Amino acid sequence: MSDLVFLSATELAQRIGAREISSEEVLKAYLERVDQHNDTLNAIVVDVREEALAQARAADEATARGESWGPLHGVPMTIKESYNLAGTPTTWGNPDWKSNVAAEDAVPVKKLKDAGAIVFGKTNVPLALADFQSYNDVYGTTNNPYDHGRTPGGSSGGSAAALAAGLTGLETGSDIGGSIRNPAHFCGVFGHKPTWSLLWMRGHSGPGDIRAMPDISVIGPLARSAQDLETAVRTMAGPDHIMARGYRLELPELAGRGLDALRVAVWEDDELCPVSAEVRGRIDMVAQMFADAGATVDRDARPAFTTTHSHETYQTLLQATMASRMPEADYETLLTRVAELDPNDDSNAARVLRAQVARFRDWAGANEARHKLRWQWHEFFQDFDVLLAPIMPTAAFPHDHRPFGERTVDIDGQSRPYFDQVFWAGLTGVAYLPSTVIPTGLNDAGLPIGLQIVGPEYSDLITIGVARMLEAAGCQFVPPERYL
To answer: Are 223 and 171 within 8 A, CB to CB?
Structure first.
């Protein structure tokens, strides 16, 4: 049965459609593993199994009639806790939101269900979706399936952990600072951060009927195969009902090109966030896979901006967006702290505080800088199809629940500030670029290491297509031994 639960969602849908196995059987296999493993893993924190079982039986009845609900027909899946799922709380890890029970499903959840998916639960997150770890005072701590003493990442940590442990068939998360990408890397699965606004987010929010698209933030899938990412993106992508009057989705694809036809840039390290030797080694390994296949590989090419400028722009926009989610009382505290800062204090902490309460004039300046970065990336991608880069500087690190200011990350014996790690996510996220994370295998400690494949805006199916080719060449999901 363990072979079944580690199949891709694509293969599960095919087998269910061919009546080789039923949706109900697959769901029960996952639920059995949830009952067996979730107490120690703590990845799935909301359970709607009875409704899901009824829906799985309905899917099997449809199959028997020769009907298909779509490309995910009968596939059991879970969703990140931050999505609305009718009849369940959406807390974002905040105890004050425990009574925030959704009246209806989020739009992307409806789309997944309309494609045939059977949603049976929700997965854990950090408080306010604002950490590289996934723990909170509502649901507790999620562990990494490869080492329970380490983080699975955040904020879609429960998503990646559930997939890696074989507790679910597919997942969908969200990303503003690597929240899809770093859990995929830490847990050895595939993840895709789409082009900004490609996937309509309504219903991925805290209390209230929020309809505005938040800056930088996106939703996107995590899976055990690249093909599943493509299916989920195609399912959830598209304009909202207003834009649909005049816009239609038409994403470019590889159109039969192989690895040999690609132009690949490689950005394996940066002084603003040095990466470990083993992470650099995996970037080199995949770059060599491209070179061996006949691709054009350039390790020196860079867009026409400094990383300091890009990162400062990202931080201003990111911090302002994250602070906008804060309760009013917390935001007032921020205003007081900023008012008390020494005007000459240019420390990193002071810059973060000022960015959190940035005036609109300051935000607008950063926004203009961001759009210049977008055009510089656009020019860069006239010469390259994709960029290979790290997403985090190390493999999964041990749980660390100290106050943020006390945390550090160890990179080959060098201690770095904890939030330096957001650099690689922000480098591409600030400019709206799509990014697909692939696994590259386990390190000597048995921990996964991934990397991101980045492309120009709206090249989502190309970065995922490249991931599919690399998966076929050996960059595949490897289940954790304790869950086999």
So the answer is: yes
Q: Which residues are catalytic?
A: 80, 155, 179
3-class SS of residue 164: helix
In a domain, 268, yes or no: no
> What is residue 152's three-state secondary structure?
coil
Residues 220 and 114 in one domain: yes
| Same domain? 6 vs 110 | yes
Number of structural domains in the chain: 2
The rounded distance, in Å, linking the Cα atoms of 480 and 469 is 23
What CATH number did the domain enclosing 187 receive? 3.90.1300.10
Q: Work out whether the CA dihedral 424, 425, 431, 435 comes out positive or negative.
A: positive
Bridge partners (DSSP) of residue 220 are 173
What average pLDDT does this structure show over 275-285? 98
Over residues 30-80, the pLDDT tens digits come to 999 999 999 999 999 999 999 999 999 999 999 999 999 999 999 999 999
Distance CA 400, CA 405 (A): 12
pLDDT digits (tens, 9 = 90+) for 111-164: 999 999 999 999 999 999 999 999 999 999 999 999 999 999 999 999 999 999
pLDDT tens, residue by residue, 389-439: 999 999 999 999 999 999 999 999 999 999 999 999 999 999 999 999 999
Q: Mean pLDDT throughout 255-283?
A: 98
**Is residue 295 situated within a structural domain?**
no
Token pair belonging to 330: 């917390």
How many Å apart are CA 370 and CA 482, to the nearest integer? 44
- Which residues constitute the domain of residue 468? 2-259+389-416+433-483
Euclidean distance between CA atoms 154 and 159, whole angstroms: 9
Decide: pTM greater than 0.85: yes
Pairing of strands 76-80, 118-123: parallel
318 and 241 inside one domain: no
Question: Could you tell me if residue 278 is inside a domain?
Answer: no
Count CB atoms within 10 A of the CB of residue 410: 13
